[in-house]
Amino acid sequence: MPGTSFAQAQVRQTPSANSQQPAVRPAPTTDEATRVEEVVVTGSRIRRNSEFSSASPVQVITTEVTDLKGIPDAAAALQTSSVAAGSFQLNDQLTGFNTAGGGGTQALSLRGLGEQRTLTLLNGRRAGPAGTRGQVQAFDLNVIPQSQVDRYDILKDGASSIYGSDAIAGVVNILTRRNLDGGAINVFASEPVEGGGQQYRIDGAYGRVFDRGYFSVSAEHYRSEPLRRADRDDTRCVQDFVFQPTTGVRLDYTDPATGQLKCFNLANGYIQASGQNLVPTARYGSLYNYAVPGNNSPFPGFQRWGRAGYPATYTYGPYDSALWNRSTLISPAERTTVNFTGGFNLTPGIEAYTELLYNKRESDQYGVAQIFQSFAQLNTLFGAPNTLPASNPNNLLGVNAVTVTPYESSSHQNIDYYRAVIGLRGDAAFAGRDWNWDVYGQYSLSDGVYDNGPRLYLDRFLALNSPNVACTNTPLGGNVSNFNCSSLPGGIPWMSNRVLAGQFTDAERAFLFVEEEGTTTYTHAYVEGLLTTERLIGLPAGDVGAAFGFHIRREELDDQPPAQAAARNIALFTSAGRTQGSDTVRELFAELELPLIRNAPLVDDLTLNLSGRVSDYDSYGMSETFKVGANWQVTPEWRARASYGNSFRAPSLYELYLGNQTGYGSQVAVDPCYQYATSGVGTDIQSACLALGIPGDYNASGGSSATIFTNGGAGVLEAETADTMNLGLIWTPGFADFNMAVDYFEATIEDEVRQFGAYNIIEQCLKGKTDFCSLFTRNTAFNVVTVNNSYVNVAQQDRRGIDLTLRYGRDLGFGQLTLSSQNSWSLEDRVNLLGGSTEDNLGTTYNYAGPAYAGNVDLTLAMGDWTWFYGVNMIGRGSDLSQPGVNEVDVYTRYADLPNGISSADCSAANSYCVRFKLYTEFTSYHTTSLRYQTNGWTFQAGLNNLFDERPPTVSTGGFRTGTAALNGYDMRGRRAFFRIGRVF
Q1: Are 71 and 871 in contact (CB under 8 A)?
Q2: Most CB atoms within 10 A, among 211, 384, 603, 696?
Q3: 683-691 and 758-766 helices, crossing angle to 10°
Q4: What pLDDT does residue 96 have?
Q5: What are phi and psi of 919, to 5 degrees?
Q6: Strand (E) positions, 306-432?
Q7: pLDDT for the residue 701
């Protein structure tokens, strides 16, 4: 196969005696000594090799290691790497959260800078995004068939001058297996000891290498079973997990019915009326004693619960729900992937090649939510009261009330992803130089259908909660969904035990709920050409390497929400219009590698790498990027490396064209003038609120939530820019098989694209920055009515840290021992927002940016046909106590006890109702061990993940958690056994 492909080079490979690649068998040739394999080199368009000798820091994760660790998919392989594990990731633990790319998407964020600032390549080529809903932006790791991956290269440095937009935090290059000559089949299973969250994979591949070409075809099917909240002790029960501030005694209430600590899962099946929370006596019957202080319910058949200052009223609070228990902690998913790779030598110097991939993902998130009388948009526009009116025939109390009922709130995705690469590459002699060239086109399409599960028609919900009638055909805001109350003339008995428990009749469900599908397509197409030579000109220290290229790309996004959502006719959820737009970029790039000095005192070799790129985007204009790198081999044992450059990120299509998304925020959450006299805001804010005529004790009484609009910023947004620097020192002593690399990194991102936030917008106006004052409105009662919180270039982010990479090998006589370790420490993680506010997220929990440290240690002992592995993944301590408004000891009205004199909000008082919260996460480590046996083409492997069944750290209410278990980088499945059987032929 002549020539080289994009960022590829031909190098000689000599497999070790113990190396067996189950899915790859080298093709026999007449001269084994000349056998070559294409190897993609990440970080340069010019030839590179080891992670311990390149000018830029590269972390290599081989599937030899991921197989030994029992890692079943690409997301787990990358998100648990040291450069990612310490920061928040888009993973499968986010049921109920609104995430970029839609539910089920898994993407990689390097160094905590966001998945949108990490570029993903597939075999050295930019890969197109996948997902659903309007915020598709990053490459979805679900697309990758783990069984066909050869290795992952993670470039831990900015590289926009090499690869273009998004390569700010770094680049991950996913390299699939090549040159398959034969076949293979593998079966993998992972079984948690406690059940739930099982993972299964079966894969097969077949390929041939012949005189003028090669081909391989592979298929993989992966299935992940749901892990539900009820499947683990620490996720099924949402305890407060609070303590007495001085003695440390646990304060959580005990549930008299169970004798266990009270679970505050999801409040449901109750009524709010006359300022009281009311639970029907029939719900629990005689399980509880209701004759307790504070239960002064005036309504027969209902008990007052959750009354602040009266602890006993919390013990029978209605927090249990079967829907809560069945909700997913880890989303189930099923994926099928088919992959084809082929090449054919048209002439001795020209190869035609192709890569074809199809991936289908079906994923689900099973959740639960509350139905309560809130008509947000209609309240704002037409004054619809957020209550079940006293005059409604289904109101049994005779006063305005709110009923709270549980219902299933789930999401489902079905995504087809197509990718095709077709190209020509080869080599040629020109002007006395040997050149390699590569011209190819790539096209990818993400075609997704999503179903948000049962949602409520807003117009019908209001029709059933209107004054004087059980149902009206003419609710405020109109009959949008063309309903007729004749199908439900008696309305819905909201206060019945049946409905409060979430049990609707078929007729009620057909009238009130809607299930409909939205569609999302994302097309990503480009043409690229590359011309490289290892000898442009000769210098005294060696030959100058060079690469020149062009890139033309077009991306299109079209998200069409379901009809009722697009019509703003869904209750209790945000909604958005159609998001549709495109962008085109034209780029030229070049790279030079200059050998400056060789074989001089203290300079065995000094090489300078220069690269630059010019990008012209239709959406905003020009970006120019550069990078300078130096690689200094001081002695055979010591090497220093350094790089400095700038990178950029063009605004995502959804940031440019998001279709008028509508959400809601409470008055206290959006308005700095809310009770400004006692809230602790600055004197400048107090003076501004007073000047508007707003009283100091203003509490928005009777006001509805503010409507918050978010639109794309096309015509306004500019590209994000970043300055990145890396300094590294590498030691490779001659007396041992040992390598050590220490790298210091810095990244400063300017003009980050974010939503500034409704509160910040209003605050800046009150501080005299009049440009913000047109972005929100108030009514005559001073309530904030609307806020325009669209995407803007608003922030600067600074990130600094140190990486340490170690590798040691030794021949023990009976086997080969290999010890490796990757570690990353953050030294700074700071965000400066427009207006001067600063966020310092260093060393937090995943509620913010994540812990400051993450690392791993892997030990492998290869003994002929046997291989034993032991590995430890580590996540450092995280704490949120340095965050604004976060206090370790603070008031918690649930633990006030007025009958016993616990009544002070002063935490220094002996009778305060202050508690101590645990808002930090301990250092956590996960151990894995496995044993593999290979013989006559067979592979048998068994192992244990999370050997000591380490559970996620426990955090108090207010933390980022499910139950009491902290999210998002921790292992939720627990101890599990994994097995793999494979056969090559």
Answers
A1: no
A2: 384
A3: 80
A4: 81
A5: -120, 40
A6: 328-330, 333-347, 350-365, 368-371, 401-408, 411-430
A7: 78
Q: Which helix (H) or strand (E) holds 583?
A: strand 579-600
Q: How far apart are alpha carbons 43 and 19 in whole angstroms? A: 27
Task: Tally Cβ neighbours within 10 Å of residue 740.
Answer: 16
Q: What letter represents residue 406's amino acid? A: P
**Cβ atoms of 893 and 905 closer than 8 Å:** no
Residue type, 732: T
One DSSP character per residue, 853-903 reads: EEEEEEEEEEETTEEEEEEEEEE--EE-TTSTT--SEEE-GGG-BGGGTB-
Taking CA 233 as the corner, what is the angle to CA 227 and CA 237, rounded to the nearest 5 degrees? Answer: 95
Tell whether the torsion through CA atoms of 16, 17, 18 and 19 is positive or negative: positive
Using a cut of 0.70, tell me whether the model's pTM lies above it: yes
Cα–Cα distance list, 295 to 15, 290, 501 (Å): 77, 7, 22
858/805 Cα distance (integer angstroms): 12
Closest CA to 972 of 947, 950, 942: 950
Tell me what pLDDT residue 39 has: 42
Task: Give me the amino acid identity at 187.
Answer: V
Helix/strand/coil (H/E/C) assignment for every residue in 12-48? ECCCCCCCCCCCCCCCCCCCHHHCEEEEECCCCCCCC
Please report the pLDDT score of residue 664 as a whole number.
84
Contact 199, 173 (CB under 8 A): no
Whole-angstrom Cα distance, residue 983 to residue 985? Answer: 7
Place of tokens 């260093």: 842
Residues 118 and 647: beta-carbon distance below 8 Å: no
Report the pLDDT value the prediction gives residue 47, as an integer from 0 to 100. Answer: 61
Is residue 736 within 8 A of residue 818, CB to CB? The reply is no
Distance CA 527, CA 498 (A): 61
CB 427 within 8 A of CB 2: yes
Instruction: Judge whether 416 and 447 are in contact, CB under 8 Å.
Output: yes
Is 682 in a helix, a strand, or coil? Answer: coil
Q: Which residue has the tokens 């409105």?
A: 777
Contact between residue 575 and residue 662 where contact means Cβ atoms under 8 Å apart: yes
| pLDDT (0 to 100) of residue 41 | 53
Q: Which two tokens stand for residue 308?
A: 């602040």
932 and 940 in contact (C-beta within 8 Å)? Answer: yes
User: What's the token pair of residue 632?
Assistant: 């200094």
Which residues, listed in sequence order, are joined to residue 480 by a DSSP beta bridge? none
* Per-residue model confidence (pLDDT) at position 50: 56
583: phi then psi, degrees, rounded to nearest 5? -150, 150
CA distance 201 to 427: 40
pLDDT at 22: 32
Residues of the chain with confidence (pLDDT) below 70:
1-42, 47-52
Q: Terminus-to-terminus CA distance in the chain, angstroms?
A: 24
What 3-state class would DSSP assign to 973?
coil
Is residue 229 a contact partner of residue 204, using CB atoms and an 8 Å limit? no
